[in-house]
Amino acid sequence: MKRIGVLTSGGDSPGMNAAIRAVVRKAIFHDVEVYGVRYGYAGLISNDIHKLEVGDVGDIIHRGGTMLYTARCEEFKTPEGQQTAVDNLKKCGIEGLVVVGGDGSFRGAEALTARGFPTIGVPGTIDNDVPGTDYTIGFDTALNTVINAIDKIRDTATSHERTYVIEVMGRDAGDLALWSGLADGAETILIPEQPHDIHEVVERLLRGHRRGKKHSIIIVAEGVGSGVDFGNKIQEETGLETRVTVLGHIQRGGSPTGFDRVLASRLAAKAVELLLAGEAGKMVGIVNNELVDQPIDAALKLKHEVDYTMYKLSQELSI
Ligand code: F6P
Question: Using a 6 Å cutoff on CB, does residue 170 contact ligand 1?
């Protein structure tokens, strides 16, 4: 293999730039040329493909976002879109592709491989919801962003003796909510994987209040429903003054943590190694701090699970 491509796809995540840098440098180290595809799969269809040199990925390891831009692309889900993508890659003389993104992006990588184009997936999403890896690139940074925000909210919650509902990202996965809630000593954590009983939440708040607790933090993952609706309900049912903060896209930005930079560098370099070894249709991951790889189709048949022992612990610690 003498020429490979790299793209980022789906929601961006801090550390994607570090991954792009590692793909480019690792490949060039092995005398392989690298082309960057802009705007994810949309750029494959529109042929937005450009050569990347060592210097093009200098000074990006510490930057959030992705220098290759990203997109969610409906056209790529069609057979015609996928064939155009493969044709464009071949026209550029590209023989293999690294895709950095979440599970939706991995389905695209699988589709390309099924059309005979070797593709390797690198898990990048703040949601941490890709099966086959303990961590995805960007999760740790987003977690620290959330923790930082909650620490600040806690100050004002204490001063005003209020209840705060904080909505964090996570459409299908509660990892961000669970980890940040545990790290911040939240009274209640609501995640999509675990059904909740509003009466129990209300009772827990009132019990704390009767015990002299003057403020409370409730973390709601967006997949559970609207934080605003939930906050209104809590205020109605408890009579406690309640405010809501929806953290939103602030969670997707910012300079990646050391953990995410190292993770991105390791995973992306491993993806290049796999391509150069003739592998295709695989994803890389990290399990128990070891780099692993497995077929994407096998990984996507698994379901990402939150750590239920952590959920139980959060409940035990927030009595
Ligand atoms: O998949 C990452 C994620 O940040 C989710 O947590 C969130 O639901 C979604 O992307 C938001 O997507 P968009 O930026 O397209 O609104």
Answer: yes
Best residue for ligand 1 mutational test, from 69, 107, 169 (most atoms within 8 Å of Cβ): 169
Q: According to the model, what pLDDT value does residue 86 have?
A: 98
Active site residue 127: yes
Mean pLDDT, rounded, for 223-233: 97
| 3-class SS letters over the chain | CCEEEEEECCCCCCCHHHHHHHHHHHHHHCCCEEEEECCHHHHHHHCCEEEECHHHHCCCCCCCCCCCCCCCCCHHHCHHHHHHHHHHHHHCCCCEEEEEECHHHHHHHHHHHHCCCCEEEEEECCCCCCCCCCCCECHHHHHHHHHHHHHHHHHHHHHHCCEEEEEECCCCCCHHHHHHHHHCCCCEEECCCCCCCHHHHHHHHHHHHHCCCCCEEEEEEHHHCCHHHHHHHHHHHHCCCEEEEECHHHHHCCCCCHHHHHHHHHHHHHHHHHHHCCCCCEEEEEECCEEEEEEHHHHHHCCCCCCHHHHHHHHHHCC
140-252 fold: Rossmann fold (3.40.50)
Q: What is the mean pLDDT of residues 96-106?
A: 97
pLDDT digits (tens, 9 = 90+) for 252-274: 999 999 999 999 999 999 999 99
pTM over 0.85: yes
CB of 242 within 6 A of ligand 1: the answer is no
Residue 318 — pLDDT band, cuts 50, 70, 90? confident
**CATH number 3.20.110.10 given to 3-138+256-300:** no
Intervals of CATH 3.40.50.450 along the chain: 3-138+256-300
